[in-house]
Specification:
By secondary structure, the protein is an alpha/beta fold. Helix 4 (118-164) packs across helix 11 (398-410) and helix 5 (168-194) packs across helix 10 (333-343). The protein has helices at 2-18, 52-55, 61-74, 118-164, 168-194, 207-221, 243-264, 281-286, 310-315, 333-343, 398-410, 421-431, 449-459, 474-481, 495-511, and strands spanning 21-27, 32-36, 56-57, 78-86, 89-101, 107-116, 203-206, 226-232, 238-241, 268-279, 294-303, 347-353, 357-365, 390-394, 415-418, 435-441, 465-469, 486-490. Helix content is 45%, strand content 24%.
């Protein structure tokens, strides 16, 4: 019987260990007399004869002890969820408290259990955050698409007007319209960044050059009281993705650091670090982020600003959440940073204490190449069009069709326009011998741009097509871009950039 009892005890111990449940027995003075299966595999000898406030830290320790005292006094059981710090690590536990009754019926102590659900809670938070971003991202993406279509119409008409105005003073006003439209498109880019529908470029580039360029721009505009240091040691510093999104993310974090420092009013320091970072199974067991295993570049941006309180930290990446005064912040900055990093299969976390500064850590997968040159957009010059025949424009926005028609006709081109995919297919079927290239909107009513693309390619499998849209779903656009003689351009765009795209696709056609 003794052997059977020992065997049963061992089974219970194994079961409890695997369930992450810790067991505590405390006397009526709340001193620990027995513990089993402690978090962090802590040594029980360090716990005995101590009380809760000796081994746990945090705002809820006092409440936890009060519940135990009440349980001894009243005989009540208590259960719930609690956040405690144990051995300098934050935990979320499910707790159960009940009085321990002696054979004589007297309450002589407390039997309590703690079940570690930290990982589950973190996962729930991530899922909730992802759901919020996904829901709002769908709304933001739709708004951005419609707004970009409007801007494309404004810019197109303004460019056509600019070609026809020879009065220098009036031409300045038209240039202002184009410039303002481009500035307005930056707002939609922020919406697209955090909704993860704005990642259109996929190139290999050096994060170090991006950081250096951004810091140089930032230093020229920041208050002289703010000093910025760079400690860039990662080798290689090469990632794959969209340089403009990473640039915007870093700039947003620098601006946040600047604002936090200026709240102190005395100036301060911003430090930017990079280092290589390897994630394996062992690291994931102690990390709350749960990385994909592999090599990362860690970008750390640290400041000695005012720091964040607990309420701010809970909402930091939520879209439209801001601590700035009305009119001084959109609340899209950190949300767009979060979206940009996630869009690059990366991770972001932070550490902040009130009046002690903030540190953001970004982790992005690296590729095993050392590229010290970065993506730079070429200066766009108006060039002659390398088209021998006409052009077909399929877009549901009338203003875009009309301004495009006016522009290309000024270049002595035959221009066909269609308001949707069905009309575009009919026009192309009847006029394919007179059409060199097609400009196709991706998001249209009745028949989508994707469906239209496949039907056009059934008519002529080699026809060059430039896909354009106010935004794109990653999978949808990537699938189409795998075909030959296909390029993408994001709305709103200048006609000069569209000319470059047309010439690029036509030049590649000649090489083929």
């Amino acid at each position: 019987k003794t052997d059977q009892l020992h065997e049963m005890e061992e089974r219970y111990k194994i079961a409890l260990k695997n369930s992450s449940i810790s067991i505590f027995f405390q006397d009526d003075d709340l001193k620990f007399k027995y513990v089993f299966n402690l978090p962090e595999n802590a040594d029980p000898q360090n716990i005995y004869d101590k009380t809760d406030d000796d081994i746990f830290k945090g705002n809820e320790v006092e409440r936890f002890m009060d519940l135990k005292k009440e349980s001894i006094l009243t005989g009540k059981n208590f259960s719930g969820q609690i956040e405690l710090i144990f051995y300098k690590r934050n935990y979320t536990f499910l707790y159960n408290i009940e009085p321990f009754i002696s054979k004589s019926g007297k309450r002589v102590g407390i039997l309590s259990t703690l079940q570690d659900i930290t990982e589950k809670i973190e996962l729930q938070k991530e899922l909730i955050q992802a759901f919020k971003l996904e829901t709002l991202g769908n709304l933001a993406g739709g708004v951005a698409h419609d707004f970009n279509n409007i801007l494309a119409g404004i810019m197109g008409n303004a460019e056509v007007l600019q070609m026809k105005i020879y009065n220098e003073e009036l031409s300045k006003f038209v240039s202002n319209i184009i410039t303002i439209s481009e500035h307005a498109s930056n707002l939609t880019k922020k919406l697209l960044h955090f909704s993860r529908k704005g990642k259109y470029i996929d190139v290999e580039f050096s994060v170090h050059k991006t950081i250096t360029d951004v810091c140089n721009i930032f230093e020229r505009t920041a208050d002289k009281k703010i000093k910025i240091e760079q400690h860039l040691t990662a080798k290689p510093p090469t990632i794959k993705g969209d340089p403009s999104l990473i640039e915007a993310a870093i700039l947003n974090l620098l601006i946040n650091s600047k604002d936090a420092i200026m709240e102190n009013g005395t100036g301060g320091n911003i430090k930017v670090f990079t280092q290589n970072f390897f994630v394996d199974k062992d690291f994931n067991e102690i990390s709350t982020l749960k990385f994909e295993e592999g090599n990362y570049i860690n970008i750390k941006i640290s400041d000695d600003g005012i720091g964040m309180d607990e309420e701010t930290k809970r909402h930091i990446f939520e879209p439209f959440f801001t601590t700035k005064e009305v009119g001084k912040g959109t609340g899209l900055g950190l949300a767009s940073v979060y979206g940009a990093i996630k869009g690059h299969k990366g991770y972001i976390d932070f550490y902040s204490e009130k009046f002690k500064g903030t540190t953001f850590n970004i982790y992005i997968p690296i590729i095993d190449e050392n590229i010290e040159t970065d993506f730079e957009e070429n200066l766009i010059e108006t060039k002659s069009l390398k088209i021998s025949k006409g052009i077909l424009i399929i877009d549901d926005e009338e203003q875009i069709r009309m301004s495009s028609k006016e522009f290309f006709e000024s270049k002595k081109l035959k221009v066909f326009t269609a308001k949707d995919g069905n009309e575009g297919i009919k026009i192309f079927s009847s006029n394919k011998k007179n059409i060199s290239i097609i400009i196709l909107d991706l998001i249209m009513p009745n028949i989508s741009g994707e469906e239209t693309f496949y039907l056009l390619r059934k008519i002529d499998k080699n026809i060059p097509i430039i896909i354009c849209s106010g935004y794109s779903e990653d999978n949808e656009i990537k699938k189409i871009l795998n075909f030959d003689r296909v390029l993408f351009i994001q709305k709103p765009f200048k006609f000069t950039l569209l000319i470059d795209k047309i010439n690029e696709i036509m030049s590649n056609l000649k090489k083929d």
